Amino acid sequence: MCKSWTNKDNLAGYVSTSLDYQIKHHPRPGWVRADKITSDEANTKILELQEENKKLTQQVDFLSSKSPARY
Question: How high is the pLDDT of residue 31?
Answer without folding.
Answer: 66
